[in-house]
Design goal:
This protein has about 100 residues and is of the alpha+beta class. The chain has 2 helices and 5 strands. The protein has one domain. It has a 5-stranded antiparallel beta sheet with strand order 1-2-3-4-5, covered by helices on one side.
């Protein structure tokens, strides 16, 4: 799975691109979010580093959708960081589970 396929999947699964205006995520991070329960959000964050592209998946509790990308979450319930290309199969499985 490559970055373009990931972005296409996120868009088709009704994730909304969120502006990163806070300091919790690194500068240049691209955030996609979808509410899965009241004020509980599934986030995919793509961080561009000089050497590698890092994808992070989170389930987190925020005050509201508008808090994402501006404030730290109230609670992080799940976190997965993918830095190696070999680890993308976990990401693909997680995307499939999240859709069910």
């Amino acid at each position: 799975m490559n970055k373009q396929k990931i972005l296409k999947t996120l868009r088709t699964e009704h994730f909304i691109k969120v502006a990163n205006k806070g300091d919790w995520f690194e500068d240049g991070a691209v955030i996609y979010a979808r509410e899965i329960r009241e004020n509980i959000f599934l986030l995919f964050v793509i961080v561009k580093d000089v050497n590698i592209e890092n994808i992070q998946a989170l389930i987190a509790h925020f005050d509201s959708f508008q808090s994402i990308g501006r404030k730290e979450p109230i609670q992080v319930m799940f976190y997965l960081s993918i830095k190696e290309k070999e680890d993308l199969h976990y990401f693909e499985k997680y995307l499939k589970v999240a859709n069910n």
